[in-house]
Specification:
The complex is a heterodimer of chains A (317) and B (288). With 317 residues, chain A is mostly helical. Helices cover 77% and strands 1% of the residues of chain A. In chain A, helix 1 packs antiparallel against helix 13 and helix 9 runs antiparallel to helix 10. The model of chain A has no long low-confidence stretch (mean pLDDT 81). Classes of the chains: A mainly alpha (317), B mainly alpha (288).
Chain lengths: 317, 288
């Protein structure tokens, strides 16, 4: 087990290294460079200054050399300065990471708490009215554009009814847990609904497959109760393929978070990346994307470990 | 046509046909209304429904109905072309992975899993903001009006191929062990001939299903990127970028924010139902 964990850790580090190079190259494709921005804000810069500045920031060097310099600094915990916030990147980034974890965590737990039981019950009798209703609901939530759903929630609950705040994370001058919770309601509902459909379908499909097996018939024959069959016999086996899918859906969860955070002006990682890209804040966009990738990889890693808990047949070598 | 007995296929296909028809009839409707989707009328900003403007006007006084139809044309065009391009790419990858197996298969599937697992939207946001000049795109293309159209099609294709690839690989794995493939091998057919002539025609079902599902996915991605200001660029209308303007006037004219989103929802729902219905109708193993 520990050897397995060690090997996976090495794998994650390798993937992260490759991704960081890819992301670094991608950021390099954004319009302009830091010196262009300085020229735009200071008309007194001469051509000689530009050359000197480019040399100072290493912008005259080839891509790989610049990447190596950036990566060395990053490994020492130095991700540079954010242009938009005039603060070190990590100072800006870390609080946002917590905000996103709160939003995503709450909505993820809520999604599973809603989608899995419904999927499980729907799978018992495919084609029943309950199954049809569940299918319709999952199709609807898969098909709805998340930003529009957010817009409609703002329109109804913030603009017309005035029950909840339209965005942000706190009210200036109010604060407190109740205020934070108020601001979380609409983003959490949006993110939960968007992820509800896929999770319901995964659970339903996995359960239908499992319920078809002989050991379920055996359990029925020996007189096990329906609840026991569903949870002890079917669910544990259905969970095995499900965990992989859930881990793989973490990336799309993050994509959903970007949209949701942007719509509700929620100060999280997704909105930070979006603002950084639009504001040509190269250092911040780079670090933000890298952290988002790292979080996704860690979720996949956690899923591999969770395998062991659900399937004792899996041997880790 | 067995597929038409599926209510999902009938509903999804019907809605998509109706939308396509409406979009194609838009120029004729514009003549009847005596307006154009781009006609700005600043005296008629955010006007309510009237005989001249059946769904009212937007923040620049443009006719909402005509804008919606033009947006639909763009969204459907992007959806269809990117989904087809993604299907071609995905089919090629899935076919090669499934047919050759071994290390090549493992590498291609790792790549597929990787693309699925990545936080795609943040990466797409960066890609959509990329400077075309730095990519070496010819200046003539950069300055053309439709550049945002091409760009979004390419971007969405790059991330949209994974579902097709997985389905095609799975089907190829089981097909390549069947007798008719063995027979073709025994007759001395080369890899390319076996893949293209013997296996590919049998993949029609998963490819059609995955493509119709992909159209919905693509339209969703296009709309969100356009909404964020990184997809279809105004003045070209798309359902996504119409919502950008509507967000600012949501307190004054809430319906402007309702129509485009409802149309995206309806279109994507139709694509998903069509894909799902086709799968049930065409794939005898999938009796659910």
């Amino acid at each position: 087990m520990s050897r397995f964990a060690a090997r996976r850790t090495v794998q994650i580090l390798v993937v992260l290294a490759i991704m960081s190079l890819v992301i670094y190259a991608l950021i390099g494709l954004m319009p302009g460079d830091p010196v262009d921005l300085m020229i735009a804000s200071n008309p007194h810069l001469t051509a000689a200054d530009v050359v000197r500045l480019k040399a100072l920031y290493g912008l005259d060097k080839p891509l790989l050399e610049r990447y190596a310099a950036w990566a060395t600094a990053a490994l020492h915990g130095d991700f540079g300065y954010s242009r938009l916030y005039a603060q070190p990147v990590l100072t800006v980034l870390l609080p946002r990471l917590g905000n996103t974890a709160l939003l995503m965590g709450t909505s993820f737990v809520l999604t599973l708490a809603l989608a899995w039981p419904i999927g499980l019950i729907a799978a018992r009798r495919p084609g029943s009215w309950l199954d049809d209703a569940a299918n319709f609901a999952s199709f609807a939530t898969i098909s709805v554009p998340s930003f529009w759903l957010a817009l409609m929630l703002i329109l109804v609950f913030a603009v017309q009814l005035g029950w909840l705040p339209p965005g942000g994370a706190t009210t200036i001058g109010v604060g407190g847990i109740a205020d934070r919770a108020d601001h979380l309601v609409l983003p959490v509902i949006t993110l939960t609904l968007v992820n509800f459909g896929p999770q319901l379908r995964y659970m339903r499909a996995a359960m239908i497959d499992t319920l078809d097996h002989d050991y379920i018939r055996t359990a029925r024959a020996k007189g096990a109760g329906e609840a026991r069959i569903l949870t002890r016999h079917a669910l544990r086996n259905a969970l095995i393929p499900l965990i992989t899918i859930v881990a793989l859906s973490f990336g799309s969860l993050f994509s959903g978070a970007l949209v949701t955070e942007t719509m509700f002006s929620y100060p999280g990682m997704g909105k930070l990346i979006y603002d950084a890209v639009l504001g040509n804040d190269y250092n911040l966009a780079l670090a933000g994307l890298l952290f988002a990738t790292l979080m996704t990889l860690l979720a996949n890693f956690a899923a591999d470990i969770a395998y062991a808990a659900t399937d004792p047949r899996i041997a880790y070598r | 046509m067995k597929a038409l007995s599926q209510p999902r296929v009938r509903f999804g296909g019907g809605v998509l046909l109706a939308l396509a028809l409406a979009v194609l009839l838009a120029p004729w409707l514009a003549q009847v209304l005596g307006a154009h989707a781009d006609t700005v009328d600043l005296y008629q900003r955010l006007a309510g429904p009237s005989l001249h403007h059946p769904l009212g006007t937007d923040e620049l006084g443009r006719d909402m109905l005509l804008r919606l139809l033009e947006g639909g044309r763009v969204s459907l065009l992007v959806g269809l072309s990117a989904a087809m391009a993604a299907a071609v790419l995905g089919t090629a990858i899935g076919l090669v992975a499934g047919y050759f197996g071994g290390r090549l298969d493992a590498a291609l599937m790792r790549l597929t899993d990787g693309v699925i697992a990545l936080p795609l939207l943040p990466l797409l946001v960066v890609l959509a903001a990329a400077d075309l000049q730095k990519l070496g795109v010819p200046a003539a293309v950069q300055q053309s009006e439709a550049v945002s159209l091409y760009r979004i099609i390419v971007l969405v294709t790059l991330v949209g191929w994974t579902t097709v690839a997985r389905l095609v690989r799975g089907a190829t794995l089981s097909l390549k062990r069947q007798d008719f493939v063995r027979a073709a091998e025994a007759l001395g057919a080369g890899h390319r001939r076996i893949m293209l002539v013997h296996i590919l025609p049998n993949l029609a079902t998963p490819i059609i299903v995955a493509t119709s599902l992909a159209v919905g996915e693509v339209i969703l991605l296009e709309s969100v990127l356009s909404f964020l200001g990184l997809g279809i660029a105004p003045p070209l209308a798309s359902w996504g970028n119409m919502l950008t303007g509507a967000e600012e006037t949501i307190a004054l004219a809430p319906m402007l924010a309702v129509y485009p989103g409802a149309l995206i929802f309806l279109t994507v729902m139709a694509c998903n139902l069509l894909g799902d219905g086709l799968q049930q109708a065409l794939d005898p193993r999938q009796r659910r």
